[in-house]
């Protein structure tokens, strides 16, 4: 499902990109300015620096704290880790068809999220949106079953601080992001 480009086709670390999200019906969703950080056994990593823009219909803001994002090869979730003192430590978007499209990361936001607050509170979020959209958009039952099971699995992995949801793994990418603070910003 995930068309990851060969290592030689990936952008160079430090390359500004836009991470584009859409909804199941093709409607516009979030577009995040980010910088490509590189890849490891978990997938491709991106970062947002302070001042990078995130925009969607009805919302537009600049990052106040840095964050890093992992796009694993599975294509059905994306991890974002926010630097302290952000109140949300971990945010996992359950997704579909997350892949490289025309040289940039993109995917379908599937509503369910796994959230860990800085306080340690951990939960699956947006069940109401998931329930409404799976009917309104007609999500296929096999995808519903897969993503509901994936949300529970990811919640467990985060609770256990299993890699890549551990500080050792993510600190490496925060350190790399810090080296790109002066890079030029993209424009959504």
Largest sheet, strands/sense/barrel: 7 strands, mixed, barrel
Query: Which range does the strand content fall in?
Result: 35-45%
CATH class placement: Mainly Beta
* N→C terminal distance: 25 Å
> If helices are DSSP runs of H or I spanning 4 or more residues, what is the number of helices?
3
> Helical percent range?
10-25%
The stretches of 5 or more residues where confidence is low (pLDDT under 50) are 1-5, 183-188
If strands are numbered along the chain, what order do they take across the biggest sheet? 1-2-3-6-7-8-9
Structure description:
Helix content is 22%, strand content 41%. The protein is of the alpha+beta class. The chain has a single domain (7-177), classed as Beta Barrel (FomD barrel-like fold). It has a 7-stranded mixed barrel. A hairpin with a 4-residue loop joins strand 9 and strand 10 (122-125).
Topology:
Layout: E1 16-22, E2 28-40, E3 43-48, E4 53-56, E5 59-62, E6 67-71, E7 77-82, E8 88-101, E9 104-117, E10 122-125, H1 127-136, H2 141-159, H3 167-178
Parallel strand pairs: 1-9
Antiparallel strand pairs: 1-2, 2-3, 2-4, 3-6, 4-5, 6-7, 7-8, 8-9, 9-10
Short description:
The protein is built from three helices and ten strands; from the N terminus they run E-E-E-E-E-E-E-E-E-E-H-H-H. The protein has 188 residues and is of the alpha+beta class. The chain has a single domain, classed as FomD barrel-like fold, CATH 2.40.380.10.
């Amino acid at each position: 499902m995930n068309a990851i480009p060969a290592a030689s086709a990936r952008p160079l670390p430090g390359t500004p990109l836009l991470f584009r999200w859409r909804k199941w019906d093709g409607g516009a969703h979030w577009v995040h300015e980010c910088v490509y950080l590189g890849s490891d056994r978990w997938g491709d990593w991106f970062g947002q620096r302070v001042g990078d823009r995130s925009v969607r219909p009805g919302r537009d803001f600049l990052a106040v704290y840095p964050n890093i994002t992992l796009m694993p090869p599975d294509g059905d979730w994306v991890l974002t880790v926010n630097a302290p003192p952000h109140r949300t430590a971990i945010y996992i978007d359950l997704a579909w068809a997350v892949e490289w499209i025309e040289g940039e990361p993109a995917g379908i936001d599937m509503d369910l999220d796994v959230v860990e607050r800085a306080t340690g509170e951990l939960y699956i979020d947006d069940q109401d949106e998931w329930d409404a959209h799976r009917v309104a958009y007609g999500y296929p039952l096999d995808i519903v079953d897969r993503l509901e099971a994936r949300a529970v699995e990811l919640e467990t992995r985060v609770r256990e601080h299993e890699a890549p949801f551990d500080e050792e793994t993510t600190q490496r990418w925060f350190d790399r992001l810090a080296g790109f603070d002066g890079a030029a910003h993209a424009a959504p």
